[in-house]
């Protein structure tokens, strides 16, 4: 169901719109965001970092769910192989992010 609602590849802003609509993909995205928040709050020391390695579509869904107020129109297309995003955590929540691209 998630793949049907949120096929890969789509630009980040499309995934954000899918999450706003609700449904299976939105629930999955919220579960990812909750999981990432638990890791940051309970497992990563202050000033530390964590790396999550995912498949296409999972990266984007997790990021947009962690940052629901962000406008993703400038983030561009879906992450390609070996690309992803960096999320910034402060005061118990995700506060910002940036897409990480491989330069060619």
Descriptive notes:
There is one protein chain. The protein has 104 residues and is α+β, with helices and mostly antiparallel strands. The protein has one domain. It contains 4 helices and 2 strands; from the N terminus they run ααααββ. The chain has a two-stranded antiparallel sheet with strand order 1-2. Strand 1 and strand 2 form a beta hairpin. It starts with a helix and ends with a strand. The model has no long low-confidence stretch (mean pLDDT 94).
Output the helix-strand order: HHHHEE
Q: How many helical stretches?
A: 4
Total domain count: 1
Strand order of the largest sheet: 1-2
Mean pLDDT: 94
Radius of gyration: 13 Å
- Tell me the number of strands: 2
Q: Report the principal-axis shape.
A: globular
Which structural class do the helices and strands define?
A: alpha+beta
- Percent in strands: 5-15%
Q: State the low-pLDDT regions, or none.
A: none
Question: Span from first to last CA?
Answer: 34 Å
Approximate helicity band: 40-55%
Largest sheet: 2 strands, antiparallel
Give the topology:
Layout: H1 2-5, H2 12-20, H3 24-43, H4 58-66, E1 84-90, E2 93-100
Antiparallel strand pairs: 1-2
Helix pairs in contact: 2-4, 3-4
């Amino acid at each position: 169901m998630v793949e049907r609602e949120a096929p890969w590849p789509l630009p980040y802003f499309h995934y954000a719109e899918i999450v706003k609509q609700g449904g299976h993909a939105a629930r999955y995205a919220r579960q990812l965001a909750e999981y990432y928040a638990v890791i940051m709050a309970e497992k990563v020391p202050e000033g530390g970092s964590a790396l999550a390695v995912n498949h296409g579509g999972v990266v984007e869904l997790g990021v947009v769910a962690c940052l629901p107020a962000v406008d993703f129109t400038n983030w561009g297309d879906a992450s390609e192989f070996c690309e992803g995003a960096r999320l910034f955590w402060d005061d118990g929540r995700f506060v910002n992010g940036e897409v990480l691209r491989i330069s060619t």
